[in-house]
Amino acid sequence: MSLTEMQGYAYFFLTIFLVVILYAYILHLYRSEKKGIKDYEKYGKMALDDELSDSPIEEHPNAKNNKKEN
Amino acid sequence: MQSNAALEYDYDIVKLYMWTTVIFGIVGMTIGVLIASQLAFPELNYLFGEYGTFSRLRPLHTNVVIYGFTVSGILLSFYYSAPRVLKVSLGESPLLKKLAYLQFGLYLIAATGMVISELMGITASKEYAQMEWPLDILIVVIWVLWGVIMFGLIGMRREKALYISLWYYIACFLGVAMLYLFNNMEVPTIFFSGGIGAWYHSVSMYAGTNDALVQWWWGHNAVAFVFTVPIIAIIYYFLPKESGQAVYSYKLSLLSFWGLMFVYLWAGGHHLLWSTVPDWMQTMGSVFSVVLILPSWGSAINMLLTMKGEWNQLTENPLIKFMVLASTFYMLSTLEGPIQAVKSVNAIAHFTDWIPGHVHDGVLGWVAFMIFAAAMHSATRVFKREIYSKSLLEAQFWIQTTGVVLYFTSMWIAGITQGMMWRAVDEYGNLMYSFIDTVSVLHPYYTIRAVGGLLYLVGMFMFAFNLYKTATAGRKLEKEPQFRSPMA
Question: Is the model more confident about B3 or about B274?
Fold first, then answer.
């Protein structure tokens, strides 16, 4: 097998591999939402409720959160 | 401890970039209209001696609109929206704020240096990378500062997850950093030539086909990471916020992000079709360009579907008009690009006016429209005032849309005519037309393009006036609007 042929096969299988990764990612997103592990759509709210006084969608554990003191 | 009741978003830096967006927009687009007119009426080349020739002004036009207008627009949008989705104010960290001022100051020096040096004819002679090495080093410093500020803000955030816009800003930062460094690898000649020549002169580290490949790896990805990725960041924040509708599918936005990241970097080879680069590399450039339709349309369709059930806003709110038309132009130009990257189509399209036609439906219809909308939306919050004139905004929209349509339609016709004429042969295989024959035929289309550009420039002045009046004379707002920007 020549080097060019090997490159061809390597390129083909790499493409297949990456397509599998991409589809696995889609599957992962939808399955984790269906199983209730993660609700991705709630993150869309981050652009809407973006005042400093709004509650975070998911609070950062290390944030200096002063709100509760008010 | 400071209480949140007193804490507000800090917009000082946003204001600064707002004005550089306006100034560079006017300068860059004015030069654009002049050089478009020069192509139709060559005597306009002699208005200002050597400083007014097409060859001197063309790189100045591209550099000012890319690194002046667009980068200012991106930074204004970043400094406005990134703290908001992270729920942290820039003012909370005096260090980061000082760094942001430093970044702006250096940016202003670099941009001014770019304008002056290119007007003087000092150039590294690489397309979209004309700045010489001292300015390149300054730009690296500016970019690193942006990274420090971006990750500094992320480190201070109250919101655990990063909103999709942030992903795109991070990609813009990392992508440009990597591409800029590699493309601008150059040798300042004075250090290696025994002191011969100007101190600012340099030569590229690459030569021949390698230089072309690196150049277009950068050139195309400047389109990716300056004209696409950060503009998607802008639309993912400003369209949902202005319309009050959360993004249609957050999952699709994640998927499109990774698709775009993977595919875009491989597509640059399409600029070198039918050239001396290896054939497989040209084919790869073509294939990846076609695949690129999927993630691009994924984002654009996601934006259009965000308006689902709220299409009435399109007629009522000019900012929504700008943003919806921007995503439509994004779809148009991301379909047109792959078509041009198909080898057989490229055989006609390469080196013709269809290429600047394609570039301009993207940058005028998509990039600049998004920057106008983002700046106006931000202005109501930054200045706490109503937009000065809704009717002026509406008029700007229609005048500029007409300008874009005239621009790209004339260039489609001109480009295809040009490509066909260059290739036409008679029955003996001799070329049928000389170069000047094509120039005579294209004259009307060049005139239409200049008129289209002029209309767009008129719109730019209307935007500048409206923004200035909003900042100084708009009706004061008692409280920050939640979604739709109020306008008189």
Answer: B274
Say if residue B198 is exposed, middle or buried (CB neighbours under 10 Å; 0-12, 13-18, 19+): exposed
- Mean model confidence pLDDT for chain A: 86
Q: What residues in B contact A61, CB-CB < 8 Å?
A: 160
**HEC sequence for B8-43:** CCCCHHHHHHHHHHHHHHHHHHHHHHHHHHHHHCHH
Distance to chain A for B258, nearest Cα, Å:
8
| Residues of chain A contacting B87 with CB distance shorter than 8 Å | 50, 52, 54, 56
Question: Under an 8 A CB cutoff, do A54 and B258 touch?
Answer: no
Rounded distance between C-alpha atoms, residue B345 and residue B351, angstroms = 12
- Tell me yes or no: is domain B12-473 CATH 1.20.210.10: yes
Size of interface A-B (CB pairs under 8 A): 99
Take residue B38 and report the two structure tokens written for it.
């020069």
From the list A30, A58, A67, the residue facing B161 with the nearest CB is A58
pLDDT tens per residue across span B7-20: 899 999 999 999 99
- Its ipTM equals 0.86
Chain B residues near residue A58 by CB distance under 8 angstroms: 159-161
Could you tell me if A27 lies within 8 Å of chain B, comparing CB atoms? no
Q: What is the DSSP letter of B240?
A: H
Contact B198, B140 (CB under 8 A): no
pLDDT tens digits for range B432-481: 999 999 999 999 999 999 999 999 999 999 999 999 999 999 999 999 99
Residue A67 pLDDT > 50: no
**Cα gap A57→B7, rounded to integer Å:** 19
Q: Tell me how many degrees the CA angle B82-B87-B90 measures, rounded to the nearest 5.
A: 65
Residue, of B223 and B419, whose pLDDT is higher = B419
CB contact A56 to B (< 8 Å): yes
pLDDT of residue A64: 66
